[in-house]
Design a protein that fits this description.
44% helix; binds D-glutamic acid; alpha/beta; Rossmann fold; 4-stranded parallel sheet; single chain; 5-stranded parallel sheet; 9 strands; 11 helices; 2 domains
Length: 255
């Protein structure tokens, strides 16, 4: 039996899920959040599906052993690879995932061209390919696997010359040619300034953080598990033994 005062567990392969956490905190300021970044094992997106599943299950088990009333998988890669397994393993628990925001982008630009930046793992999984089949019919969708960005964000270099240099060969050829660009990895919104510099001013950027926070809020309200009052709280934990990552986590939440 869960209690209103329990924590909302949030996790990602690293600090990327904080781009979702900031929407969760903005929409539910009275809630208590326990954020776990698995930076010791990041990136997830270059690993085989089975490995991602095992890593996500380990983190979920850890969080759910500690008075967590809902679990937010704030990682597109872990959601694509592992969410159905997590739901089967913990049938009584509210488990919310995130997927690339292709649906709002495609609905906004019927007949247009939309890019989807994500990890290799997200783009190859069946979950994303079902989304593509549903929303890639009337909109031209360009898949942009984007390795390397996660590592720079984890190193505190989200807005840096290194990020611009990494993005130029990937996005430069699409400058001025995309109506929309989906940031389909939770690390990527932190690189939005660099992405904007390279893709140009006219492309609309989409990310799934706000919608995921809305889903979480709605589910908790339906179950009567929202805290109505009290002081909100955010606790950061990280699997990497590096205090820099906890400092970076706090900075990114304020960003
Ligand atoms: N932040 C993650 C995502 O949303 C994955 C990054 C990674 O570890 O590759 O996909």
């Amino acid at each position: 039996m869960y209690h209103k005062d329990d924590y909302i567990g949030v996790f990602d392969s690293g600090v990327g899920g904080i781009s979702v956490l900031r929407h969760l905190v903005a929409q539910m300021p009275q809630e208590r959040f326990l954020y776990f970044g698995d930076s010791a094992n990041a990136p997830y997106g270059t690993r085989p599906t089975e490995e991602i599943r095992v890593l996500a299950e380990n983190v979920a088990r850890n969080l759910l052993s500690r008075n967590v009333k809902a679990l937010v998988v704030a990682c597109n890669t872990a959601t694509a690879a592992a969410i159905s397994h997590l739901r089967a393993a913990y049938p009584g628990t509210i488990i919310i995932g995130i997927e690339p925001a292709l649906k709002p982008a495609a609905l906004r630009f019927p007949g247009g061209t939309v890019g989807v930046m994500a990890t290799n793992a997200t783009l190859r999984e069946e979950k994303f390919n079902r989304l593509l089949a549903d929303y890639g019919k009337d909109t031209r969708v360009v898949l942009l696997p984007a390795p390397g960005i996660v590592e720079l964000v984890e190193a505190g270099k989200a807005d840096s010359p290194e990020m611009d240099a990494l993005l130029e060969p990937l996005l430069g050829p699409w400058r001025g040619k995309l109506d929309g660009l989906v940031l389909g990895c939770t690390h990527f919104p932190f690189a939005a300034a660099a992405i904007r510099r390279v893709i140009g001013p006219d492309t609309v950027l989409f990310d799934g953080g706000e919608g995921t926070a809305r889903n979480t809020c709605r589910r908790l309200a339906l179950e009567g598990l929202l805290r109505e009052s009290g002081q909100g709280e955010v606790i950061f934990e990280n699997s990497a033994d590096d205090p820099m990552l906890l400092d970076l986590s706090r900075q990114l939440l304020e960003a």
